[in-house]
């Protein structure tokens, strides 16, 4: 297997991370440390045992490992520490801008106050500049909980509106279509928040869910969404409306046993603003530059295609036009060196 560029080249390439669940960055060592500090029995006592427990072969089996792990996050300081640990890793991967998902309901449902969660994460992202990263938060609703719970969560979050830039939708898609959350996403829009939703890989009704997300909900971005390649009308629609896709090839390899690289490259070739992201890097043992390198190696991407993926990440980021131009110029400087 060959690629046109090295992993070091990809690490140095300025890029934005747009599909990253902060809870998915909980590395085994931090999990153990927090479990010990907070006196929580997680059933494992060594890093090897924790790593061994990170096993799954589908989205539901992944979520069954992912949610219980969050019990170790108890205090504001824990959420802050998780964020800082991610930013340190992201710096090594050439991330210059990061829009980070967090799942408040996964914590409020076990008694952690919303304020504790948002204050910890927000203090972390504000320190992004210490790592050369501008970072922001995206509040995700859990789609396997009720629409009312999502609405309550948004109501609780709105007093902190200056601490997050948008809303998203994640967790188990089966039986939980985007339309279930139309009202809460409308309220979010009315409050000036950006909107994105997961359209996970090879779901029941994938195409109909993608259609709802872009035509009915009118999101600003789609997370995953690679099944769109099966429907030319929807591909044309996202191109006409400049709606980007945040794909996660290594994550796909775990939950559907296929990176969906062929589909990602096909979309890239059709001019869709696709990006490569890491999703839950502690669980898939791959951070963003590793993800780009894995895709590039397996699907023989050209240097130009790799650079396009990085450019797309700033083009579809929720940042000012001026900041976009600054980051795109940094890519040009790097690639012309
Ligand atoms: N899909 C749905 N829910 C998630 C994901 C994902 O990729 N990662 C973390 N929660
Ligand atoms: Zn995700």
UniProtKB/TrEMBL annotation:
Substrate binds at residue 280. The keyword Metal-binding applies. Keywords: Hydrolase, Metal-binding, Nucleotide metabolism, Zinc. It catalyses: adenine + H2O + H(+) = hypoxanthine + NH4(+). The record marks 224 as: Important for catalytic activity. Gene3D superfamilies: Metal-dependent hydrolases. The keyword Metal-binding applies. Binds 1 zinc ion per subunit. Signal peptide: none annotated. Zn(2+) binds at residues 19, 21, 198, 279. HAMAP family: Adenine_deaminase. Catalyzes the hydrolytic deamination of adenine to hypoxanthine. Plays an important role in the purine salvage pathway and in nitrogen catabolism. Belongs to the metallo-dependent hydrolases superfamily. Adenosine and AMP deaminases family. Adenine deaminase type 2 subfamily. This is Adenine deaminase. It comes from Enterococcus camelliae.
């Amino acid at each position: 297997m060959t690629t046109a560029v090295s992993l070091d080249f990809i690490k140095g390439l300025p890029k934005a991370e747009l599909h990253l669940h902060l809870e998915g960055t909980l590395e085994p060592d931090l999990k153990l440390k927090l479990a010990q500090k907070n006196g929580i029995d997680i059933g494992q006592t060594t890093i090897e045992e924790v790593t061994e427990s990170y096993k799954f072969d589908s989205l539901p089996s992944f979520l069954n490992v992912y949610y219980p792990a969050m019990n170790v996050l108890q205090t504001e300081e824990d959420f802050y520490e998780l964020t800082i640990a991610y930013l340190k890793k992201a710096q090594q991967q050439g991330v210059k801008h990061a829009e980070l998902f967090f799942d408040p309901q996964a914590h409020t449902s076990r008694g952690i106050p919303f304020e504790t969660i948002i204050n910890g994460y927000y203090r972390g992202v504000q320190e992004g500049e210490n790592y050369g990263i501008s970072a922001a938060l995206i509040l995700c609703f859990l789609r396997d909980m009720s629409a009312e719970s999502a609405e309550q969560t948004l109501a609780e979050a709105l007093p902190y509106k200056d601490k997050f830039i948008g809303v998203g939708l994640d967790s188990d898609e089966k039986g939980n279509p985007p339309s279930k959350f139309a009202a809460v996403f409308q309220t979010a829009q009315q409050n000036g928040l950006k909107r994105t939703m997961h359209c996970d890989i090879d779901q029941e009704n994938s195409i109909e869910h993608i259609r709802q997300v872009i035509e009915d909900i009118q999101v600003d971005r789609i997370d995953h969404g690679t099944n769109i390649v099966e429907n030319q009308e929807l591909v044309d629609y996202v191109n006409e409306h400049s709606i980007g896709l945040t794909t996660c090839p290594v994550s796909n390899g775990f939950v559907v046993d296929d990176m969906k690289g062929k589909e990602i490259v096909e979309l890239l070739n059709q001019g869709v603003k696709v990006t490569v992201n890491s999703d839950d890097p502690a669980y898939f043992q791959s951070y963003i530059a590793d993800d780009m390198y894995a895709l590039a190696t397996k699907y023989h991407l050209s240097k130009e295609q790799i650079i396009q993926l990085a450019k797309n990440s700033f083009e579809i980021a929720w940042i000012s036009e001026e900041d976009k131009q600054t980051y795109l110029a940094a890519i040009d400087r790097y690639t012309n060196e």
